[in-house]
Design brief:
The complex is a heterodimer of chains A (about 260) and B (about 270). By secondary structure, chain A is an all-alpha fold. Chain A contains 12 helices and no strands. Classes of the chains: A mainly alpha (about 260), B alpha/beta (about 270).
Chain lengths: ~260, ~270
């Protein structure tokens, strides 16, 4: 076998993989039907029709539904995580709740929030109607997933912290609220930001509740535009709109992880 | 009927331990400990690692649940399920080997939180008391630093100030200098010496034999879960009667680490 010093071998391998990549791209570029692609997927006329509603209605709705469900979901998650760690009958309730909503598809939860609750509870009206039901569904999903993240954070707080608090005479509730939770929430900032990215994408599932013209979020908006214009361009614009939000968030997670690493 | 509340006025011994046993699974760590600490007394507990001395200390304020026996702390029976644990612990300071400062709070924040939440002191009063105690441990200029910005010795002194801010009747020290760089040990021991001289009742688990000899009133040597020997520190550390104590002390005061003259100093005249 040919012997190369590791650096040389690494460099050769790197160039080989670049070459393969470029070749694949070249084949795709030369065989694709560019005029049709441009007309179908990146049609500027269609794009112009969607402006500015894609931002003022669709993006706005996506963002505020995500934000509302995140805030509510995190509050729910903190309660569930504390109950689960504390154990006892309420702990069991938390476990069942968490496993139930993590175990079924988010789409089903949102559907349930919109159509099962009003039937099961005899005409109970969710505040905010269809949008309210959509946010409730997303809240339940985020609460269940977030609870597991926060539980991990709580258990990552060193035992000595609890002992120090208890030895000062602080009760278990005071210890949880003043000592454990502030540290746990700090630890879970990176995975929570990831959860926010997931939630943002999951908000596309709320189409199932049947949104009105001014309630549409990005995906519903794109799908409807697809059927009215007959062009797939709206879907690409929607994809770009998601990326504009998710990519910086993902980048932020990386930064946060690095910062927390160096602080330890 | 045992007492479930701490009695802060009594002049009775604040720590009375009777026939204390503690097992972790099949491993019996404490095999019947009897120990009484008088008001204002400073007791050092020494012994090899695994002898149960830290477990004994952690049983006193019930950070470890004893298997059997009785612990009377400030008059309250700690093993009684009805005991007001938080009320008793409020008056018993504890200092840990690994400091256990709250990393998300400043030095003064560490000293304030329990005063506010447990003693319900006013903000102004809590700050006043925290400042006084931080000055006492020589950290007046480090009040607004976070633990991560402090050296080990400084962190441990903040931990002592934090405990003192609760006006404790008893202070428990669990190897307070074991995690420190050698040159930082002195600052912490100096604070503890001041505290002892001010009349604080202290139980100190330590490997600092010179501290035990010079500062504590009584030293207890533990090995294998029992008290092997106890007596006035000046006698026990300098001239132990039991063979196991002699061997332990010789090993700790290893001649390769201690000047011959210092060893000579430890010998009885």
């Amino acid at each position: 076998m040919l012997y190369l010093r590791p650096t040389v071998r690494d460099r050769a391998g790197k160039w080989a993989s670049y070459a393969v990549g470029v070749a694949v791209l070249a084949v795709v570029a030369f065989t694709a039907d560019w005029p049709t692609i441009m007309h179908q997927f990146f049609n500027l006329e269609v794009a112009a029709q969607m402006w500015p509603a894609i931002v003022t209605v669709a993006l706005k709705n996506t963002l505020w539904m995500t934000f509302a469900s995140f805030v509510l979901g995190m509050s729910l998650a903190i309660v569930l995580a504390v109950l689960k760690v504390a154990g006892g009958p309420l702990g069991w309730f938390a476990v069942v709740f968490i496993e139930f909503f993590r175990g079924i598809p988010a789409l089903l939860t949102i559907f349930g929030a919109a159509f099962v609750i009003p039937i099961a509870f005899g005409g109970f009206k969710i505040p905010g109607d269809r949008v309210g039901a959509a946010i409730l569904g997303l809240t339940l999903v985020t609460g269940a997933y977030g609870a597991e993240i926060i539980r991990a954070g709580i258990q990552a707080v060193p035992r000595g912290q609890l002992e120090a608090a208890r030895s000062l005479g602080m009760g278990s509730g005071q210890t949880t609220f003043w000592i454990v939770l502030p540290q746990a929430l700090r630890i879970v900032i990176p995975p929570m930001t990831n959860e926010l990215v997931m939630l943002l994408k999951d908000s596309s599932l709320v189409f199932i509740v049947g949104l009105g013209v001014f309630e549409k979020e990005l995906t519903t908006f794109g799908r409807d535009a697809l059927s009215t214009t007959g062009s797939p361009t709206p879907l690409f614009m929607v994809a770009i709109a998601y990326l504009v939000i998710t990519l910086p968030l993902t980048y932020l997670v990386g930064l946060l992880e690095k910062r927390l690493d160096t602080k330890r | 009927m045992s007492n479930v509340f701490p009695d802060l006025e009594s002049s009775a011994p604040p720590v009375v331990i009777t026939d204390l046993h503690k097992s972790f699974g099949d491993n019996e760590v404490l095999k019947g400990i009897d120990l009484t600490v008088a008001q204002g007394e400073v007791v050092c507990v020494i012994g090899p690692s695994g002898s149960g001395k830290s477990t004994l200390l952690r049983c006193i304020n019930l950070l470890e649940m004893p298997t059997s026996g009785s612990i009377r702390l400030l008059g309250a029976e700690m093993t009684d399920p009805d005991v007001e644990l938080n009320q008793v612990r409020t008056h018993v300071g504890m200092v840990f080997q690994s400091f256990n400062l709250f990393p998300n709070m400043t030095a003064i924040g560490n000293c304030i939180i329990a005063q506010r939440q447990v003693l319900k002191r006013s903000k102004a009063e809590a700050i006043e008391i925290a400042k006084r105690n931080l000055e006492l441990v020589g950290l007046a200029d480090r009040m607004s630093y976070h633990p991560a910005q402090l050296s080990g010795g400084q962190q441990q002194r903040v931990a002592i100030a934090r405990a003192l801010s609760m006006d404790p009747k008893v202070m428990l020290f669990d190897e307070p200098t074991a995690a420190l760089d050698p040159e930082l040990v002195g600052d912490v021991l100096a604070v503890m010496r001041d505290l002892a001289e001010a009349g604080m009742t202290m139980v100190v688990v330590t490997h600092e034999m010179l501290f035990a000899r010079d500062v504590s009133d009584r030293t207890i040597f533990m090995d294998g879960g029992v008290i092997v020997e106890e007596g006035p520190s000046a006698e026990l550390v300098v001239a132990p009667r039991e063979k196991r104590t002699q061997v332990f002390l010789k090993r700790v005061l290893d001649p390769t680490h201690v000047e011959d003259s210092e060893l000579g100093e430890l010998e009885p005249d």
